[in-house]
Amino acid sequence: MTVEFRLLGDLEARLDGRRIDMGHARQRCVLVALLVDVNRPVPADHLIDRVWADRPPYRARNALSAYLSRLRHLMVGADDVRIAREPGGYVLSVDPLAVDLHLFRHLVAQARAADRPGPAAALFDEALELWRGEAFTSLDTPWFSDLRMSLEAERLAVTLDRNDVALLAGRHSELLGELSAAVRSHPLDERFAGQLMLAQYRSGRQADALVTYQQVRHRLLDELGADPSAPLRQVHQQILSGDDGAARSVDAPPPAREPGPDASEPARLGPDRARSNLPRRVTTFVGRDQEALQAAAALRDGPLVTLTGVGGVGKSRLAVEVAARRHARFPDGVWLCELAPLVDGGAVSHAVAAALGVKQQHGLTIEQTVIEYLRVRHLLLIVDNCEHVLDAAAKLLDQVVHQCPDVALLATSREPLGVEGERVLPVPPLPAEAATVLFADRARANRPDFRLDREAVGAVAEICRRLDGLPLAIEIAAARMRAMNAAELAGRLDGGRLVARGPRGTPPRHQSLAAAIDWSYRLLSEPEKALFARLSVFAGGFDLDGVHGVCAEPGTTGDDTLDLLTGLVDKSMVAPVNSAPRSRYRVLETLRAYGRERLREAGLEAGLSRRHARYFTQLAEQAARAMHGADEREWVERALPDYDNLRAAFERAAADRDADLALRLVTSLPELAHLRVGYESADWAERALDLADPDHPLFAAAVGSAARGAWNRGEFARARSLAATAGGRIPGRGTGRVAYPGDVLADVALYEGDVDAALRHYDAEVLRARRDDDPIRLVWTLYYVAVCHAVRRASQRGLPAAQESLEVAEKTANPTALSMASYALGLVLKKTDPDRALALFDEAGELAASVRNFWWHGTALMEAAATRAVHADPAGAARAFIEVLDHWDRVGDWSQQGINLRYVVRLLVRLGADDDAVVLHHALVAAGRPSPLDAARLDVLARGLGEQRFAAAALYGAGLSGAAAVRQARASLRRHAVGRA
């Protein structure tokens, strides 16, 4: 088999044209570190330094040996590749020309030795075409970053040499576009400038060539205080005199410059939705290119960069821009977590988990869940607005820095976090020119006829000066251009009537921002002022119903509220948020803080906060009832965006020790939050129990909610203890499906192997649900009866319950009920009627996904894949199991992932992937999980593989962590999915 290694872009390895998955980032680091020095020994200490820098893991040599062993395994079949240990270190032996980096250098050497410009240019072109982007973009340790910078410089030098010989070969017109772009990317590189001037001149554009010279000359004077070099002046003189016979464009080497990691990473107008949650850029990015370069360089050099500065200076916008430009460097994406909606630091880890789409894992705290998820990923995480939860944010990010080596962190805060390894970059106000450009751009957005002409430019400069170049203040001021011209606006600021001074000692920038906000606030009508201040009570965003329900004056209508809200949007005091199907809004955090101060001054903050808590408790109650009907999807879309407000409502109730309100809220959230966000609401339920009287009618449902959270986390003893506090009481009709204490006890028994106890409970609950005429409860209990029979391998006995469950669910038209019932029926039919079972599993998964129910969606995906593995296309099953692995990995449910890995082991045996099956079997056993391979089957596999090979696979598997076992399964499935497609 022929082998190719590609380093000039993201790392690729191909056997006979088929791409090979090279595994974890560290394993890829080892491969590249050997390929760079191909056919030469690299000492183990050097490899460890290249791969881990100053933070090698415990027993780094063992880890290195394991990576090398896996690389050898991946190269089985490539006879011309060998990885061996020699006296001088480890050597990867292969034809150097099979590695694109060495082929590039070979072609460049041939080009430089060529005696004619035409063939030399062709060889240079062939070499440059090998580059597919930045070299090994997904690897980012210091050694690789330095090597990448060196290779970029090498690539640049080759490009310059190619341009020279191509110009000599007469390709001036062909090079014009590329040289123009190069001068824009490298505005101080005189050699590029000279080449462009020659190309322009020889294409009949002498005037353009002279303009290029003047532009470069001015840039050199402005930025370096230097005149053009002698070679560039010589090109200029040749063009003036009509003599273009110089053999080369500019012989001077390119000047020293800061590496530009962003030159090959243009800012994106919107995020890659598959690997990012960055907001779409909807306005121009002005005046921060230097800061963006500095932040990008700091991210390359350290694990955590914190952008600091006064509120309104543009820290958040800069962070998002930097992330968008560096998106391609992070194979697991770039993710934004906004902390501004949080009331206190207790929810920081939950907010980070929600931003990443991660659910709390069984047996782990939410902090541990986040760390375990990030530990094996290579991504960039932005943590925005840390200042009001500084201690909690710093504690979590410190753990990420020390335990997640491939995660880069970009934080924004008004003060440093104080975390080891933190690089602090103060974000200054905009300089005068950039501030003027920003004002003009935003003014045109509000008033399309605005022109920055001679009359306006002085007034705009004065406005920006008085606002100290703070972007937020400038944008607020520019919004006023709908009502006046620039001179009038400057006059009002100059007259001092709209300049509000901050407290004595407040920094001038704070005073400037306060002046801009206070000025905009004073321009509002009295009803608009009242509404603006009241909007500060919301955490995160809000919709029109929320505004009217929480903030409206008695006797006003929804239309009245809409008119006021529209006025605030028009005056840039409230920002609309692109969302569907309902419009939502938000108040910038700086403006929200100002509004909160107005509420405190008026003595309204506590009362309005309680009104907010009552409104969102009522909303949660409405949603909980609707979650049992046909409108489940509508209410998920309606209520889920207000999760931050629900958290704030609970914190208000807890602070007031309002047990009734707290119980009403937590017993309304299992349907909305528990199955769609994570297990945080179960913690709220536990806290509410400390406030509550056990005789309260909602006490049992709150116990069920708390106990279910413990069960989800795998804390079975805790779940039993909590459930017992209900004293055998059963929650009332309409309680959330997962919030029955008795069900939690039965589920603990089921998972611990006591199927009979679980079946007895659910048989009794079926009778109770029929007596109560509660169809949602009946679907749930019949579903579990069917599951219990399936677990006992008596599926036919569960068939009547599953069929009845589906009949009842169809009458409710409730998507989750229909999903559960379809799943139950598929489960009992999958051995006798696999085609129908597959259709039922697919339908169950689609129904659950349609209402964002991650739990039932995952179980349906898993059973469908398992059924396909036995009764349908094995390659299709392999692809399906990859999706299931990713699903449970993101949800963070190891109990379900363990079941999934059992199914994967069975499939690998069927596919003949005996090595991989043995590896995963031993990984499951080492984790204390059952495996589908019994002793007899293992004996068969051992004989087939041979004793030594079997022992090696067993030893390797026993050493895998849960996350590593998932990666191993994913890699194996991909090979078979591709190989059999």
Automatic annotation (TrEMBL):
Keywords: DNA-binding
Family of the protein in this entry: Belongs to the AfsR/DnrI/RedD regulatory family.
Coiled-coil segments on the chain, per record: none
Domain OmpR/PhoB-type intervals: 1-94
Domain of life, per lineage: Bacteria
Family matches, as SUPFAM superfamilies: C-terminal effector domain of the bipartite response regulators, P-loop containing nucleoside triphosphate hydrolases, TPR-like
Pfam families: BTAD, HTH_77
Transmembrane segments: none
Stretches for region Disordered: 243-278
Protein name: BTAD domain-containing putative transcriptional regulator
DNA-binding segment(s): 1-94
Family matches, as PROSITE patterns: OMPR_PHOB
Species for this entry: Pseudonocardia aurantiaca
Keyword field contains DNA-binding: yes
InterPro entries: BTAD, HTH_77, OmpR/PhoB-type_DNA-bd, P-loop_NTPase, Sig_transdc_resp-reg_C-effctor, TPR-like_helical_dom_sf, WH-like_DNA-bd_sf
